[in-house]
Amino acid sequence: MRNILGLFLIVIAASFVGCNDKCDEGNQATPASFFVEIIDETTGENVFENETYTAQQITIQDLEEASIPYEFIENLNVIQIFPPVSNATVNSFIIKLNNEATLQMDEIDVNYDVSSIVGECFTTFKIENILFPNNDSEFVETVHVIKI
Q1: Which of 1, 33, 40, 129 is the most exposed, fewest CB within 10 Å of its CB?
Q2: Is the pTM higher than 0.85?
């Protein structure tokens, strides 16, 4: 009788462990990000297509000069930025473009907010209210087009 009771408890415990593991390790939230395209205000040309700047001349930093991760997408000549999501509001960083050969330099201030949705397995963050206070910009098909 003891063996049957012990076996029964082991089966029950194993089923709870299997049932409570609804979160798949491979199923994780996509990091919050957004896309920017930078164009010349005068010509309307993308500054990477017209070779005003190269991908190696991009620096993105917060106000304390800590690097912010990004990816330059060559075939589209846009930047995907992955800003910090720790604060809900009053977030800022700077996109710096510096062509040392031509001595041309541009800085783009960026302000944004973060919203979050708490799910069963993870929290999903979304970048919202993205503003470029010193530059004209527009939102075109999921890309923020910034004029410099």
Answers
A1: 1
A2: no
